[in-house]
């Protein structure tokens, strides 16, 4: 009887350990990193560009360090169904379907047989704008393993209201633009998009609701790992252009883990003009993060104070001290993993308009 009790105790202990291991592994492997590019050129606006040599360095790094490049829609399906992913999964995306992507990125991706996504706004393509790919070039993108996503008909900002619009008319206009873009992509490319990229990375509650209603998985440009801990209508992507084009910036991003967020209590995405100090109360699930090592900053790189909260569930409060400027207000946090050099990431965005409602 004593031996049986001892065996039972050991078995229970092992099952607990296995459960913890499986839980941690599942959490760590239910995410992926999505990279966002626009121009692949050294002759386009630097803040939105990665020269071809930098882009090749990025692809070389992925290959040399054991990363698997997956189609973005495959990652989305895994996240939606809560199925695991391999530990080093990356997706490559391009916003706006610029011609430099066809000229400088496509040959490299095709040679390496790497899948990728191009988010298309149909209007400049239909008008034959020289900065954008043509329909024939987009067909070649598809033949070479590319997926086509949507940015709406004109890549309109999803939050800004036109000067003549009344409240409620913005969403009607955006709905029409998304529907017309779908029709154009179906007509010229025979594809029905399942993925959406928010122009300028900006969204609010109404636009995210619209993206969900249209059946899209949506992606912004706020940093972090795509996972079930973010809304499927507003998943993060790491920008890989501008100052982020240096390959030395890639490792910390590619190793990012999603902070397991249970809930966020915060003001609505479009702030009042006089609200310079937005707050966010973030509640977490338990995990392998070190919350005392949490570090947060705003989109300008200025530290944002955080206050750990008492209670049964781990949580922290974010509040700006210096006041936030007009435009995108982003709070970006990292917390170290307790057993490795990796970091957990969390992002939260608002938009602060000026007194006239612009930004």
Question: Could you describe the 3D structure shown?
Answer:
With 359 residues, the chain is of the alpha/beta class. Helix content is 31%, strand content 23%. Helix 2 packs parallel to helix 4. It comes from Oceanospirillum sediminis. Residues 1-28 form the signal peptide. One of its GO terms (biological process) is carbohydrate metabolic process. It holds the Pfam family Polysacc_deac_1.
Short description:
By secondary structure, the chain is an alpha/beta fold. The protein has helices spanning 2-28, 52-64, 72-80, 99-112, 122-126, 135-143, 169-189, 205-213, 250-254; strands at residues 31-37, 68-69, 89-95, 116-120, 146-150, 195-197, 217-219, 226-227, 238-239, 257-258, 261-266, 279-284, 295-298, 306-308, 315-319, 327-336, 343-352.
Strand content is: 15-25%
DSSP summary, beta strand count: 17
- Sum up the overall morphology in one term: globular
Using the coordinates shown, work out and report the CATH topology of the largest domain. Answer: TIM Barrel
Helix content: 25-40%
Structural class call reads alpha/beta
What radius of gyration results from the CA coordinates? 22 Å
Number of domains: 2
Q: What's the main sheet like? A: 7 strands, mixed
H and E order: HEHEHEHEHHEHEHEEEHEEEEEEEE
Round the mean pLDDT to the nearest integer and report it: 93
Would you identify the regions where 5 or more consecutive residues have pLDDT less than 50? 1-28
């Amino acid at each position: 009887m004593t031996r049986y009790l001892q065996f039972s105790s050991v078995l229970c202990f092992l099952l607990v350990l296995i459960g913890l291991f499986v839980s941690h592994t599942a959490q760590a492997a239910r995410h992926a990193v999505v990279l966002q590019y626009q121009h692949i050129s050294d002759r386009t606006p630097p803040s939105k560009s990665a020269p071809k040599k930098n882009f090749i360095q990025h692809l070389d790094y992925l290959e040399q360090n054991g990363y698997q490049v997956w189609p973005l829609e495959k990652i989305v399906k895994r996240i939606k169904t809560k199925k695991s992913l391999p530990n080093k999964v990356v997706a490559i995306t391009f916003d706006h379907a610029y011609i430099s992507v066809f000229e400088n990125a496509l040959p490299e991706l095709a040679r390496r047989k790497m899948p990728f996504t191009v988010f298309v706004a149909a209007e400049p393509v239909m008008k034959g704008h020289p900065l954008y790919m043509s329909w024939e070039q987009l067909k070649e993108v598809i033949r070479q393993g590319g997926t086509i996503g949507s940015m709406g008909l004109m890549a309109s900002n999803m939050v800004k209201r036109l000067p003549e619009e009344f409240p409620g008319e913005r969403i009607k206009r955006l709905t029409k633009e998304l529907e017309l873009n779908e029709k154009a992509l179906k007509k010229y490319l025979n594809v029905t998009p399942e993925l959406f990229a928010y122009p300028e990375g900006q969204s609010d509650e109404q636009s995210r609701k619209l993206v969900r209603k249209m059946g899209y998985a949506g992606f912004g440009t706020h940093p972090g790992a795509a996972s079930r801990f973010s809304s499927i209508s507003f998943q993060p992507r790491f920008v890989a252009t501008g100052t982020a084009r240096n390959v030395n910036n890639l490792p910390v991003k590619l190793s990012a883990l999603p902070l397991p967020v249970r809930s966020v209590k915060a003001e609505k995405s479009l702030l009042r003009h006089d609200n310079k100090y937005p707050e966010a109360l973030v509640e977490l699930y338990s995990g392998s993060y070190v919350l005392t090592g949490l570090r947060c900053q705003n989109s300008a790189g200025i530290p944002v104070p955080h206050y750990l909260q008492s209670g049964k569930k781990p949580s922290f409060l974010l509040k700006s001290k210096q006041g936030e400027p007009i435009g995108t207000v982003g709070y970006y946090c990292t917390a170290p993993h307790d057993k490795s050099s990796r970091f957990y990431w969390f992002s939260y965005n608002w938009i602060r308009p000026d007194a006239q409602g612009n930004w």
